[in-house]
């Protein structure tokens, strides 16, 4: 290979744009970091400059919603362009095409992949208005001594901070430099059709109950699917893990062997990859019990089909989303991005997403924008005093209903594992492919 | 007299096509080829020359079953497409006399392309699902007592989905070949005492062979790289090389995906060359 | 046009195109027996359109018969009905003594040679010729023998393993002929067999076809719109127009005595005068002397079968049978003392030397009608006339054919 190609690490995609991406990435690494050392320049001056700013915002469908964009543009005065992607595409663009976005709405578990690319710039925590109000399991790793403090996998706190403003290394203890500002998150579990299952689902192990042979499903995204599978095999007593969030090769071999055996038995009806697929599988009755995302359960219910998001005795698998800033942001654009981060934590968005069942990183601010009935239902686990209506006007729950799993504390406090990127990620994908091919 | 413009003109005229060809075909493939030799770990890839990715491809337990599975789909889809396309094209070109009716019926064959891939795939569920129309019918007729599970999320469903999607790619070239057969050849054969079956076997089939070959190339290349239908109709439970590559790309393992892509490309090339060795398609070009 | 045929040099200087075997006086191919073909009141309808109307025709065994006519006259339809590729709407077709009206093509003992030869492009020459034998389940060794024999006959044995597109047009034509003959038909049908060839080859192939027909002694029925081709090949010419037969005649009869205005015009160059019958004088030989009144010219005399006075009719004279003379000469002086002759004045408008023959365009003084005169080039030189000259034209009543319709 020619010399220059060895000179440095290059992240690049297979697309034709890879060459451009590479050049830009290199240039940015060499240039001094654009963050001005003087925080908070005069707000009036900025407000004028910010009017001409357009921020390109990539993320998954959860928060890439036009209503949120419109409200943000109205409140902040600059333009935001949305681009909704799948989890996988989102990560790929974050890593390989830094020129394509200004803000990145991603999951914490993808940070071990994204951060080494150097495409995100560390966020100056001291510039954030609401950082100290963020739920503590993000910022300090603590949460009333509940199980979530010891949760396995890529817990947000493990990848929340960088050692320094130029560092690509995660810091185990809080620093002034954050990777992302937490945004929305949730505790995932199994969803089921009570009418077709015929009993209460209380354990992850129920997914392997022979009674549901040919009627179950899990996620076909290796990093996420393996976590659900790990919860299942562990609670079924089929195997134990040192750390489910960071399996050894032997553990990966063992769990894949179990999955392959189950697949050959015909235990799974299908695997799903997108939100819509999981909704279709459940509402058509093809699948009666599967790992699901909270709003997917809501979507099934809104079709008039009973669906329960089971609180399980072993606890939840959680995911956390946050907003990171592109390395290329500077000047007025960077100021605008910081303004957006503050706006996101300010409560309006938290309330908006809260009405769909997601949790806000700053619940106390979200509360200001929610009615007392909404707050009680979504966060406190109390029966709905009135019908619960989502931001788009659809009635999700009738008065009297109670949120599956109960209050915020009961749900998030009982998270035992987060979505993960493991050290043996490459091996995991290979074994996952073997599982699919079996 | 030396006229530089006249000499350069053909090159200028050919340049846009060549550039498009280079940029959108040669460059990406070259890129894939190069990347397939790079090193990678979970975070990043490094330009280098390593055969590890290829060693990975050939030693992985997933490779052989996945390729065999893909070949299985290819053979099934190809033979079913041919079995359906030949009579359909024959009917269109030899049994329909009115040109307008023929055009109309040919357009009917394109109906599968009138909706998006995703919508087509989703609409199989109410048809083939456990509570779908086919199962309802079978249950009502008393043919089965339990819903038939293998109608959906199975190899059957995958093959059905692909045949549905790709049949037209076989019908069109076969139909084209048949339309180009000089009708007096058939009169001549009949004049010499050939029966309908003789005419089919001795005249129509050999003269349609180039069309069948072109259709086969379409169907084979499309099926070999297929992953969307495999995932949606197979309920994510069935493997194909395309799906394997897409999973690797989804997990940001580009060099491995690239190595797999190169192997798939070569395998597909081998199949296409095989087809071209059996049938001379120049007559159709 | 007739002078051209009469003096065609190519016929005498023809290259030998047949192999030595083909030139042998005794036919080498056995098992060929010619049969006559009869059409009895045959009609073909496509919906309301009548393509062939009540056609009756007898083609003797061993004859070379040409169906001649403009495109759309029904000649190809007639041929295809005889071959069995077209159903018959009414009437009967008999080949030899067998009614074949409803038999499939292969059961009629006919073979057809197509306009574009219809050789199978994917089969070798050998396989093309073998095809019919194979379809008729002729035993393999016999097939092989007969294919080789016919290939030898047409002198193309060396092309046996080639594909049709590797052969020249003439070679393809001979293969098409061989492929038809190998099945030993009683009647060979040829649909415009020469139209795909260029002029030179056409003339050579024409003579070759005639030779093969004579050598095999088969009945050949050929469709053509080419008058010269029909004249040079046929024993019998059937002129067709609009789905019915205008005239059935030998080439000589057709040349000398066209039966109708259509035929006279179609065979070309004849000078035709339309008028009304004013008098008929019966003759014992059936060649009645008929007087026509032609507007602007006056009375013209011609020979034919008498029709009632007042009938609309016409007469025709061949351009080579007219006589031109300087206008000052006495009438009839160049007609060798013919009793009845026609005379009129014209001006020479154009002289065209085409080789042996010179074509002289004239304009009739009285009516402005254009006429054509043909003479040998030598004769023209001696006449010492040129463009613009006023001349007297004369032709004998015996050379003038009465056209009843």
Automatic annotation (TrEMBL), chain A:
Keyword Lipoprotein attached: no
Alphabetized UniProt keyword annotations: Signal
Coiled-coil zones: none
Pfam short name (any one): SBP_bac_8
SUPFAM superfamilies in alphabetical order: Periplasmic binding protein-like II
PROSITE patterns assigned: TAT (PS51318)
Protein name in the entry: Putative spermidine/putrescine transport system substrate-binding protein
Annotated organism of origin: Phormidesmis priestleyi Ana
TrEMBL record, chain B:
Entry GO CC: plasma membrane
Domain ABC transmembrane type-1: 67-277
A family per Pfam: BPD_transp_1
Transmembrane segments: 12-38, 73-92, 104-125, 150-175, 203-224, 256-279
Species the sequence originates in: Phormidesmis priestleyi Ana
Record localization: Cell membrane
Annotated keywords: Cell membrane, Membrane, Transmembrane, Transmembrane helix, Transport
SUPFAM superfamilies (alphabetical): MetI-like
UniProt protein name: Putative spermidine/putrescine transport system permease protein
PANTHER family, per database record: INNER MEMBRANE ABC TRANSPORTER PERMEASE PROTEIN YDCU-RELATED (PTHR42929:SF1), INNER MEMBRANE ABC TRANSPORTER PERMEASE PROTEIN YDCU-RELATED-RELATED (PTHR42929)
InterPro entries per the UniProt record, alphabetical: MetI-like, MetI-like_sf
Gene3D superfamilies in the cross-refs: MetI-like
Family: Belongs to the binding-protein-dependent transport system permease family. CysTW subfamily.
Topological relation to the membrane, as annotated: Multi-pass membrane protein
GO biological process: transmembrane transport
Automatic annotation (TrEMBL), chain C:
InterPro entries registered for this protein in UniProt: AAA+_ATPase, ABC_SmlMolc_Importer, ABC_transporter-like_ATP-bd, ABC_transporter-like_CS, Mo/tungstate-bd_C_term_dom, P-loop_NTPase, Transp-assoc_OB_typ2
Enzyme nomenclature, EC number: 7.6.2.9
Pfam families xrefs: ABC_tran (PF00005), TOBE_2 (PF08402)
PROSITE patterns: ABC_TRANSPORTER_1, ABC_TRANSPORTER_2
Keywords: ATP-binding, Nucleotide-binding, Transport
GO CC annotation, single: ATP-binding cassette (ABC) transporter complex
Molecular function (Gene Ontology), one example: ABC-type quaternary ammonium compound transporting activity
PANTHER family: SPERMIDINE/PUTRESCINE IMPORT ATP-BINDING PROTEIN POTA, SPERMIDINE_PUTRESCINE IMPORT ATP-BINDING PROTEIN POTA
Official protein name in the record: ABC-type quaternary amine transporter
């Amino acid at each position: 290979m020619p010399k220059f190609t060895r000179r440095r690490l290059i992240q690049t995609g297979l697309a034709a744009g890879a060459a451009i991406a590479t050049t830009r990435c290199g240039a940015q690494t060499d240039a001094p970091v654009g963050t001005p050392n003087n925080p908070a320049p005069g707000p009036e001056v900025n407000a004028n400059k910010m009017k001409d700013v357009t921020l390109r915002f990539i993320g998954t469908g959860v928060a890439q919603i036009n209503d949120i964009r419109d409200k943000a543009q109205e409140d902040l005065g600059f333009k935001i362009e949305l681009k909704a992607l799948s989890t996988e595409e989102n990560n790929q663009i974050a890593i390989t095409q830094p020129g394509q976005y200004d803000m990145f709405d991603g999951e914490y578990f993808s940070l071990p992949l994204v951060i080494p690319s150097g495409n995100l710039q560390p966020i100056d925590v001291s510039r954030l208005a609401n950082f100290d109000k963020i739920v503590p399991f993000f910022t300090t790793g603590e949460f009333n001594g509940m199980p979530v403090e010891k949760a396995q996998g890529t817990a947000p706190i493990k990848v929340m901070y960088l050692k320094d403003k130029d560092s690509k290394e995660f810091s185990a203890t809080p620093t002034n430099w954050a990777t992302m500002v937490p945004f929305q998150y949730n505790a995932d579990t199994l969803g089921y059709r009570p009418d077709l299952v015929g009993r209460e689902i209380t354990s992850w192990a129920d997914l392997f109950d022979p009674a549901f042979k040919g009627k179950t499903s899990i996620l076909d995204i290796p990093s996420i699917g393996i976590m659900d599978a790990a919860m299942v095999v562990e609670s079924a007593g089929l195997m134990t893990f040192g750390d489910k969030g960071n399996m050894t090769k032997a553990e990966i071999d063992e769990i894949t062997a179990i999955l392959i055996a189950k697949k050959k038995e015909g235990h799974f009806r299908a695997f799903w990859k997108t939100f819509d697929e999981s909704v279709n599988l459940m509402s058509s009755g093809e699948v009666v019990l599967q790992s699901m995302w909270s709003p997917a359960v809501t979507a099934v219910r809104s079709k008039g089909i009973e669906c329960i998001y089971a609180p399980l005795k072993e606890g939840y698998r959680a995911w956390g989303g946050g907003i990171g800033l592109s390395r290329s942001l500077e000047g007025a654009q960077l100021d605008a991005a910081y303004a957006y981060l503050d706006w996101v934590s300010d409560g309006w968005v938290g309330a908006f997403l809260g009405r769909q069942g997601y949790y806000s990183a700053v619940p106390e601010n979200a509360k200001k924008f929610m009615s007392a009935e909404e707050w009680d239902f979504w966060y406190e686990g109390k029966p709905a005093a009135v019908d619960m209506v989502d931001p788009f006007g659809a009635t999700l729950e009738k008065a009297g209903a109670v949120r599956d799993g109960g209050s915020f504390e009961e749900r998030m406090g009982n998270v035992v594992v987060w979505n993960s990127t493991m050290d043996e990620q490459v091996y995991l994908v290979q074994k996952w492919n073997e599982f699919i091919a079996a | 007299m030396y006229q530089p413009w006249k000499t350069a003109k053909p090159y200028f005229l050919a340049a846009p096509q060549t550039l498009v060809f280079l940029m959108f075909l040669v460059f990406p493939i070259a890129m894939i080829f190069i990347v397939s030799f790079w090193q990678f770990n979970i975070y990043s890839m490094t330009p280098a020359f390593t055969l590890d990715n290829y060693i990975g491809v050939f030693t992985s337990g997933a490779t052989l079953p996945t390729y065999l599975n893909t070949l299985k789909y290819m053979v099934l889809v190809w033979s079913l497409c041919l079995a359906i396309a030949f009579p359909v094209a024959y009917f269109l070109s030899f049994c329909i006399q009115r040109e307008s009716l023929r055009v109309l019926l040919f357009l009917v064959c394109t109906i599968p392309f009138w909706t998006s891939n995703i919508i087509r795939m989703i609409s199989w569920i109410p048809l083939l699902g456990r509570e779908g129309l086919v199962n309802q019918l079978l249950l009502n007729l008393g043919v089965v007592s339990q819903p038939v599970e293998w109608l959906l999320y199975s190899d059957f469903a995958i093959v059905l989905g692909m045949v549905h999607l790709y049949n037209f790619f076989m019908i069109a070239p076969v139909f084209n070949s048949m339309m180009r057969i000089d009708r007096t050849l058939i009169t001549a054969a009949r004049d010499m005492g050939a029966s309908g079956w003789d005419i089919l076997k001795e005249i129509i089939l050999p003269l349609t062979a180039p069309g069948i070959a072109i259709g086969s190339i379409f169907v084979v290349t499309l099926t070999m790289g297929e992953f969307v239908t495999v995932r949606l109709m197979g309920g994510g439970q069935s493997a194909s090389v395309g799906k394997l590559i897409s999973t690797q790309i989804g997990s940001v393992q580009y060099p491995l995906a690239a190595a797999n892509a190169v192997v798939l490309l070569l395998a597909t090339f081998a199949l296409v060359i095989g087809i071209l060795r059996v049938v001379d398609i120049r007559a159709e070009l | 046009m007739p002078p051209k045929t009469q003096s065609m040099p190519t016929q005498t200087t023809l290259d030998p195109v047949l192999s030595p075997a083909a030139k042998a006086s005794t036919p080498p191919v056995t098992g060929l027996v010619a049969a006559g073909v009869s059409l009895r009141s045959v009609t073909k309808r496509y919906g309301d359109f009548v393509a062939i109307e009540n056609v009756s025709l007898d083609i003797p065994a061993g004859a070379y018969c040409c169906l001649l006519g403009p495109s759309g006259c029904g000649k190809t339809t007639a041929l295809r009905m005889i071959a069995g590729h077209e159903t018959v709407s009414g009437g009967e077709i008999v080949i030899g003594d067998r009614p074949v009206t409803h038999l499939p093509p292969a059961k009629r003992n006919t073979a057809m040679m197509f306009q574009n030869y219809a050789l199978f492009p994917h089969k070798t020459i050998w396989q093309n010729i073998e095809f019919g034998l194979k379809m008729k389940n002729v035993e393999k060794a016999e097939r092989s023998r007969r294919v080789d024999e016919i290939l030898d006959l047409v002198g193309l044995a060396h092309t046996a393993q080639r594909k049709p597109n590797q052969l020249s047009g003439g070679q393809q034509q001979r293969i098409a002929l061989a492929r038809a003959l190998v099945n030993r038909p009683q009647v060979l049908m040829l649909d415009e067999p020469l139209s795909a060839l260029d002029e030179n080859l056409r003339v050579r192939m024409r003579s070759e076809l005639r030779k093969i027909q004579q050598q095999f002694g088969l009945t050949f029925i050929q469709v053509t719109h080419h008058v010269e081709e029909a004249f040079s090949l046929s024993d019998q010419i059937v002129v067709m127009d609009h789905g019915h037969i205008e005239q059935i005649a030998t080439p000589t009869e057709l040349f000398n005595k066209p039966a109708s205005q259509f035929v006279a015009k179609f065979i070309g160059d004849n000078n035709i005068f339309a008028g009304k019958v004013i008098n008929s004088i019966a003759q014992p030989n059936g060649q009645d002397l008929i007087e026509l009144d032609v507007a602007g010219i006056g009375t013209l005399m011609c020979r034919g079968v008498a029709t009632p006075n007042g009938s609309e009719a016409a007469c025709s004279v061949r351009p080579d049978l007219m006589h031109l003379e300087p206008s000052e000469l006495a009438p009839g002086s160049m007609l060798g003392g013919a009793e009845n002759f026609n005379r009129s004045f014209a001006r020479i408008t154009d002289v065209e030397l085409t080789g042996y023959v010179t074509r002289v365009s004239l304009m009739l003084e009285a009516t402005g009608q254009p006429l054509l005169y043909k003479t040998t080039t030598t004769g023209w030189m001696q006449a010492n006339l040129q463009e613009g000259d006023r001349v007297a034209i004369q032709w004998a009543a015996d050379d003038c054919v009465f056209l009843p319709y």
